[in-house]
Amino acid sequence: MAADIQSSSQPLKGHDAMSTLSATTDDAAAKFWQSDRRSATALASEFNSTSTSHVTPTVFVVDDDVSVRESLDQLIRCAGWQPETFESAQEFLARPRPIAPYCLVLDVALPGLNGLDLQKRIAVDRTDMPIICTTGHADVPMTVQAMKAGAVDFLMKPFNDDVLLSAIQHAIERSQAALGHEAQMNALRECYASLSRREREVMALVVAGLLNKQVGSELGISEITVKAHRGSVMRKMKAASLPDLVNMAARLGVSDAQDGQSSAARSTPARIRPTTPC
């Protein structure tokens, strides 16, 4: 995904007085973040008014500079999100994954386990965590490495409050979409788990395109019994139509997993097919 890479060499609107500050100086960055809070808060209110989540999103900040952590904590809190700040990568890794939408604002130049290494660890067990990388002295290889590892934005210090807020909003929307998809998949898996063995067999053959009579022939049961199982499958899966059921099966991987069984069943001689009624 393309991401905006902010350069400290570019003038920042509303901060002309700060343009001479060095991007590599932590003190300058801290002073910059403390300025223009009013306009940032107004922008944050606009962001919050469009949010569809009923759970307050969490914004993690990992930065070894205490002044930066305090400044971002205030900014994020004013935006209506829940900030959690950490001094080191190790401290952050000890924090359990939240159930609310979330994102991470990560300083790349951390002592010890640096930001890029932390990003690699997150990619293993927190694949749905959007990461916004920040640094005061990035180079092209570092930026490319972070973006290839999945960072949604890479911001150069110092940067405007509204630039960071926009990046956070985008990251939170990604997190909300990922959590929504995960919730849908969990509900779908629960529905599928409620099916009996026979109902799963019927479902696999139905979504593969077989008619009721063909399904009955495959399983050695009557067409009336197939219709009963099919109706039960539709009800338990909460499918409104056959195309809806086919879509559910595709998302669960049922059609792919069961097509082989269907083919095997077709190649099985009729004399050894199951003959049990249900």
Question: Mind explaining what this structure looks like?
Answer:
The chain is α/β, with parallel strands linked by helices and 278 residues long. Helices cover 55% and strands 10% of the residues. The protein contains 12 helices and 6 strands. The two termini are 51 Å apart. Mean pLDDT is 75; it is low at 1-53 and 256-278.
Tell me the domain tally.
Answer: 2
Strand content: 5-15%
| Count of helical regions | 12
The residue-averaged pLDDT reads 75
Identify the strand order in the major beta sheet: 1-6-5-4-2-3
The CATH class assignment of the largest domain is: Alpha Beta
Please identify which CATH superfamily of the largest domain we are dealing with: Response regulator
What would you call the structural class? alpha/beta
Biggest pleated-sheet summary: 6 strands, parallel
Shape: elongated
